[in-house]
Amino acid sequence: MREVAVIGVGQTRFGKRRDASLSELAVDALREALIDAGIENREVKFLSVGNFGLSSEDITPAVIAAEQVGMHGAALMRCEAACASGSAAFYAAWMAVSSGLYDLAVALGVEKMTEVETPTMIEILGRAGSYFWEFHDFGLTFPAYYALYATAHMKKFGTTEEDLALVAVKNHKYGARNPKAQFQNEITVEDVLSSRMIAWPLKLYDCCPISDGAAAVVLASKDKVRELGIDAPVWVKGVGVSSDTSTMGNRPDFLGLRSSREASKIAYKMARVEPKDIEVAEVHDCFTIAEILAYEDLGFCKKGEGAKLIRQGETEIGGRIPVNVDGGLKAKGHPLGATGISMIAELTKQLREEVEPNRQAPLRRYLALAHNVGGTGQYCYVTILGR
Amino acid sequence: MREVAVIGVGQTRFGKRRDASLSELAVDALREALIDAGIENREVKFLSVGNFGLSSEDITPAVIAAEQVGMHGAALMRCEAACASGSAAFYAAWMAVSSGLYDLAVALGVEKMTEVETPTMIEILGRAGSYFWEFHDFGLTFPAYYALYATAHMKKFGTTEEDLALVAVKNHKYGARNPKAQFQNEITVEDVLSSRMIAWPLKLYDCCPISDGAAAVVLASKDKVRELGIDAPVWVKGVGVSSDTSTMGNRPDFLGLRSSREASKIAYKMARVEPKDIEVAEVHDCFTIAEILAYEDLGFCKKGEGAKLIRQGETEIGGRIPVNVDGGLKAKGHPLGATGISMIAELTKQLREEVEPNRQAPLRRYLALAHNVGGTGQYCYVTILGR
Q1: Domains and CATH numbers, chain A
Q2: ipTM score of the complex?
Q3: Which of A51, A63, A142 to mutate to test binding with chain B, by most B CBs within 10 Å of its CB?
Q4: Which of A130, A200, B324, B372 is the most exposed, having the fewest neighbouring CB atoms within 10 Å of its CB?
């Protein structure tokens, strides 16, 4: 396998983007990534597009994105892995370069979720679970799936509603420093606790929003990096993928995500690093409990000690392992197909020390980790980047 | 890049499969492919699933398929490339093995299209074109897109309605010999010409049906082939992918598909073979005109001479290059996500000389080609197999 570098990244502002169509969002992200990489659209012969779909009238998003940015003719596919669709597209583009097939590849993630009414979107998302049983017959929606994890974690490990709130508070704090975040306002624990109940113990502010947005990354082989004269690019050190049943009733417990543990194990092994080596991370905080589970499943702390990490400020800048210092899904937003690519884009900028100074993680070993979950762990993609 | 072999294939019967759910179809194809390869489900660590979606209530088909067949935990993604979704999944699995990431990978294609009413399905398919302009504003449906190609070809090259009908007659002839085909009845030119007009000059019998079905292939690295003791497997010799605008008005002409020409050029180059070396082919005959275009775009004859090929029987068994001798999309059926994988499955069996004797292509060099188009050439995947 050939080494692969991230040589360009781009991302639109996330949020309710009534001002831009799906293809306009795609083009904005793609153009930024191409300029960042210093390459022309015509040089790109492989494009993968992460998009969950079902919320936009455009049912061939890869085709329209490729056309709008002048890449039609390229090898093209759409990748879907529920909320990890962006990471699946990244994985495909990474394989295209690491296999030796292409010297340049672009992965784009894009989602337009606010075109449909919110209750419809909630229904669509709920169907990403076990459709025939747990969604249809028992009425579980997405917040309810994660509420099962929250209550189990609270019962077993003493995690509290305040602990969950702290995750939202932290992520809003950094979202307020990120001009591309959907929510750029700070909030308090009290704001979270007094927000509308969604699925106990998860309240409105424990949940990520419904978002529009796009992100893109340009990948290159080592030869291409040299040819372009890029110094110290960001390298893809390890990628791990795993999956799990969508049927909650078939899972061994609700204390963590098996696919997160498996995917990170594969990625750590490939990168030859350990959890303690990671200096900044993006984790999948679709709900506050999900971030706490991720701390544990990724090995940033022992199982059951996730709440302690957030309580002690260890996942803020200045702590042991800054997490989601771009606002995370919670405050930056979660346009499904874009999220995984946006994580890679953010970490690339972190490793280049190019983000806003008040949210830049201090680096010594220059190692970062992205963790993107599809559904409630039906998919998990973990990527380790280094410089 | 590592060499990759097809070591197992499986396919369900295509058709109106009211007797089987999406996951049951998936499981039937997967199980057959695993048995054919002589491996266990637990050995598979990479699964890609080709599925167009939008016609089934299951919106995470990759997850349910993986779970049903006992592969959850594997690296997993769904690939979509409109009617070439199966080939996109094949491409992803091929990259997973050729890159050195996995020694075994499975590509599954599955589609359940008959759950929705036919007019709704026709609308969904039409939206795979240029949605906002040519579908929505001008009312072009999928048969109408291809009718533009048919009329242009007739005007420029003198291709006739009878020539188009001959494609349907040939493909039904072989469908009648394929127990997995949706239509197993022979038809006459008169049947085609007198069938209901859909979009002039295309009549009902010029169009492929709406189908349910699944197909799966197991891919392995050279090392794995040796380890399993497989003699003379079928090798993936070359793969080419290209794409094109979905806006008909932006295409240079309607005489052929640019993406077919580009994709096949890449595949021929990788396989180091020429069109004349191919001894049996599966081409994307979603409409009869599409097969004639494919003859020309793939280089089986010169541009404009496709009709001559079918008239002279050159694409039947005994002719120069037998095409779609499993019935093709026209008679075997076209469950979108399954089609591309089914082509690889059929050609693998052809190269192993394992199909029904009355539709076995005579082989000397053992080279086969699969051509799978998404939309009206928005995507094209070409795969060359050899033994």
Answers
A1: 4-116+211-228 (3.40.47.10)
A2: 0.96
A3: A63
A4: A200
